Amino acid sequence: MTIRRTGEEECHYDENEEEAFTLRVHHHGRFNEAKNEYIGGEVTYFDWVCIDFLSLLNLDVIAKDLGYRLPLSYYWKEYGENVEYEQEVEDAAMEDCVDPTSYWEQSFEIPEMASEDRDGSESDMHLSEGELNSVDGSEEERRHTPWVRKTYPEFNAETDLKDPKFQVGQVFASADLFRKAVRAHALKQRRAVVFEKNDPNRIRVGCKSENCGWQIFASILSEDRRTFKVKTYTPLHTCAMVFKNGFVNSNMLGRKYVNQWRVNPDWNFAGFAQQLRDDYSVDASLWQYYRARKHAKKLIEGTVKEQYARIWDYCAELRRMNPGSTTQVKCSLDGDIPVFQRIYICLAALRKGWLEGCRRIIGLDGCFIKGQHRGQLLTAVGVDPNNQMYPIAYAVVETENRETWQWFLELLKVDLNINNSHGIAWITDKQKGLIDAITDLFPNSEHRFCVKHLHNNFKVYHKGLLLKQTLWGAATAATEQRFAQKMAYMREVSASAYEWMTDKDPRHWSRAFFKEFPKCDMLCNNYCEGFNSAILEARDKPIITLLEMIRNYLMKRMAKKRVEVDKWHHLVGPKVFKFIEKVKLETSGCHSDFCGNNIFQVRNFEQDQFVVDIQNRTCACRRWQLVGIPCVHAMCVIMTSNMDPIQFVDDCYKKDRYKLAYDPVIYGLNGPSMWPQTGDTPIRCPEFKKQRGRPRKARKLQSDEVRQDGTTRLRKNYVLIHCRRCGQVGHNKKRGRQQKKTPK
Fold it and tell me: What's the pTM value of the predicted model, to 2 decimals?
């Protein structure tokens, strides 16, 4: 590449130099953006520019050769096919300080350049990305100069928004980004600014203070009608800092601190207010905190309507990542638009684990959903070999009644392949419609009622600790003779209580009438209550967030249990082993006598006798048959005979069964952007009716329950309040005064 000044002999190219051309450089003048023309200066020609080795770095080489310091601004122009350039015309034009070209470009894209050979024909060439970024400093590469343009500093939203810095010529990807940068700058510098002109093409911002000269002006570029460039900027603020800024609103704070709420959803007002003081020296109100948190939750979880609209896609992703899982959605129709009613989910890993490793007893329960769109969460929970809960399936329904329970149990029956109901046991509360649904679908199954809920109904009419203990004594009695003794005692204590209990079929609530095949003597539905408590945080979330939090909890729980089983020190689980050790201690008051044929007679400290058959694993007290773990009488025989008690534990408690229950894997899901698009009509969220008052989230305690908040005072149960003014029962002095003021 050679340099030629104006007036010097023009370069002539040979036929073998078809890919070489001459580059004309205008410099030492100024560019008029309004008229799009270069004014003044001089012209220098660079001959023998090779089009095969163009590099943007050579622009700086040319500038240095001309005696300029970096950085510089560049403009480029491509020769048009209808434009003819003559040396005389150029020289005459330079005398008038006007360039003869008709249009200058400021594009950031690589232009398609054309060069003329000796015959006047054009040869097009395109520059590859590798050639543009060439850093080869060879002499041959320096002979070419590609396109000439102005390089503007670009504003990066990911890094520069934290502390925006402006300068003339700076470009922004959009008008919204420029506005965000101005607001962020005002908050960072603690200045009050105002948008004096704010339209799609021009934005002018000035300081609110009349004596401050700070201002910035940006307008849209004509090339893409999207990029904004700073044209005017006065950076100096002469006004005082302010500590109350209109830009600090709830939406801005929600976006600003969305990551804090994502990491810590329970971030309280005190921490939020202190963070705001540290960042912007601004005080926040309580309602501003509430609105900011609400906006941040929308950004994290998406709006309620968006989540309902993507239920089909979520179910498709769940089935894709966990093959064999069941998802069932039921909707009502409002014209052609589906409106959400119910969704049922049974993960394949949970179904397989229950079928292969768990006992045939299932607890059913429902709990309230506390979010914007209320409903009920129905759950089916089994018992694992370590006597811990094992969730099987769950469903979100509009309400809890016979129809919804029937729908849930029909799907569960198909998933668990329950063809013969003789081999299944259920334990439930006396839920609405649940008893009838189980009777219809599983007529031959055993149905147990939770004794805790039975006692809650019992104590409404029959109060007192003695009756409570008598009721529980009848429920825990393992033989019919023991049950009859407890009920006779209840009749002596309270005939009305005895009559109330005789209306209840003892097959549903007493161990004396339970079947022995489930190997479980459970009287309370605590496993379902435990599962409801474990997912408490999820129950006030939008629909997909709720389902995902439940799935994540189950996925992590299955993985945790697979790791824990390798740390077992015995063939049975820790809870089962602890129970065996407890039974060993109770054998101190027992004495066994050998009868023959592996049969023993055991006498306890109450001078009561029981026959134990070690070979058939039975005891007259029926506890061994009901549970599958040796009772205190059988344990006395085992310890006296120096045998290992674990060998007499039923196989349903063994380590191998536990591994079968937790070996299946619940696989994770991709984010919403990776979900398959089913193309089904988006589901609309159900109609929301806002109730009066603040929504209740805490469970209403029973009258005899003690609060778990560390209170040191008991509640006044069964206490009659007397008014000191009138002496009547049912109100106090203050309440009576209020009733007196109430107009008739």
Answer: 0.69
